[in-house]
Amino acid sequence: MSWLHSRRIRFLFAGVTLFFILFAALRLGFLIASADHAALAGESAGVILQTISIGLRFDLRLALLIMLPVAFAASLPRVNLVRSRFTRALTGLYLALATLLVLLVYVLDFGHYSYLGQRLSATVFRFAGNADISTRMLWESYPVVWISLGWLALTAAFVSLLFRAARVTLDRPRRQPIRPLPAIAGIVLVAALGLLGMLGRVDNINPENPVPLRWSDAFFSGNAAVGALGLNPVTFIYDTHRIPPEKYDLAELRRHYDTVAHYLSVDSPDPATLSMQRTVKPHVHRLPVAQAPNVVFIMLESLGASRSGLFGNPLDPTPELDALAREGWLFRNLHVPVTGTAKTVWASITGIPDAARSESATRNPFISSQHSVINALKGYEKIYAVGGSAGWANMNALVLGSIDKVRLYEEGHWRAPNDDVWGISDLNLFRETDAILREQAKKGPFFAYIQTAGNHRPFTIPEDNDGFVASSIPDAEAQKAGFQNTAQFNAVRLLDHNVGRFIEMARASGYYDNTIFVLFGDHNGRISTLPFMPPAFELLGLESTHVHAMIHAPKLIQPRLVDEAASLVDLMPTVAGMLGLEYGTATMGRDLQYPAPEGERAVPVILREGAFPVIGAVTRKHLVRMNADGSKASMHDLAAEAPLKDVSASHPEEFARLSRLARGLHESARFMMYDNVVGK
After folding, report:
1. Model confidence pLDDT, tens digit, residues 352-396
2. Residue 570, annotated ligand binder?
3. Is 456 annotated as a binding residue?
4. Is 545 annotated as a binding residue?
5. 3-state secondary structure at position 581
6. Percent of the chain predicted with pLDDT > 70
7. Residue 341 annotated in active site
8. Structural domains of the chain ordered from first start
């Protein structure tokens, strides 16, 4: 065992140990400070410990990978770590840079999860396309200077430990030469242990095909928050980045074509061409109006249903919106297909869920011009208004390429000064847009899309806020009602206040009575504790897709509660049905006033995006979810006290129906993004 006295092996062991301890400590920090404790509380201690065990094995793998170049430097015959000062210095520089970069990934991962509820993956690279806006948002939302100082201090402290370990192990006097046979045996054993550590498994290993520990192993419980606890951000970025881009699975699309064609009421189904085309004709539910109504879409930033008093929020933060909903159609179970502002803009304009795997569909220049039902509004002036830059996520390409003759108003067009990274305040956005609409109403009907941003970090409350008074309740009280803190609670209240002011402006400007207002959240913000909502929304991930949505036009429609499941992509077709429009479409949106061909209405959702998505089909009562390849499918009762329980065996026919829809609609959405391109 003389090889145990090897100075180089001792240094390698010390380096791996120090990195492993660092990553384990960061995992503990994530568990204490960032993990979704509400979702973790529903799991047993055994599940939590098993997930942490998986995470620690990922940490060991990363520690071994970082030290692999050092092992190479140690094995050099004449210029190794013991004999060469140059090799020693170069290795020290490498370890310092590796530590700096790895800790930066952890810093970004903590912030990413705190903000979006998802661990860092290769999808983060999409923000590099908007580096200026992303940087400003971070600067205005977080204490960047203190975080940077902490990152550098931790890096310096850890690198000093590595250098001390090098001095203790490499500079110690050599005892005696190690004989060749023990040296070879030691190298083989160390290499075998290293390979076993990177494999991440000690049991159930097939020698002919040793499958390493994979990211999916962390999601064995089906609880996304538990799975997040088992990931390592550095290795997960690698796992997600190395997946080759794929448009869609043609074989899977053909297999589910009949199901989807029936769901969409395709005119002439043809499995050979995979046509989704259909013609929607005027229906008896068209509004009996002499003058064409205006249409105003208002995208409510980060306004999930749980932020509303109508859905039981105890702080009643949205009295203005709730009052509007009571006078119109309130959608009790409307879901966005997937979270994210750019993805919501895409779905609401195109009628197609954004099922892109690596980055939002708006960032793909080959599909940015889409056919849209909005263009069936013949004779309408079309206006898109956003307080900041429409270049964020290349949304301007989608807007300008998909809406005929649209007038895009964005940062630089407004008289009001910018308030933060997202441009002018929502109140000023409403004021200046109202002035545009007031003049347009004198000329003819209009379609307007107003994209708000105030309910978003950095949660700015402008000085000019038309009498809004911020609440000073403690953060703890706000957190009990599902908010991250009081700042987010006030941001929701301010959004509600501003919408109320806009409706007052519309009344004063004379176009309110003849306008259909469609208001919807683009997704929900990061969840916390929601005791007033059914447990399924937290535990199954539906809280992020379930949004506050309504159609408000009290002079044109009667109040109505819509309890059936509905999707964001259905809103524009439903309005088109109210207006009695005839149009052709090959997308997924459907008029909600038509009976659903599938029986109980079901809508597709993407519960986890990225290279390895989790997809689902949700109804008023159930959710079927699965991996995008159809594996690990389960069915859940949305009203149950224990919604994580798989009830597929109790409802085999419904499970089979929703499984086909989930798989078919997801693959069809991927196909439609390319099939619906203008000029195709």
Report:
1. 999 998 778 998 878 889 999 999 999 999 999 999 988 888 899
2. no
3. yes
4. no
5. coil
6. 93
7. yes
8. 1-238 (no CATH), 248-674 (3.40.720.10)
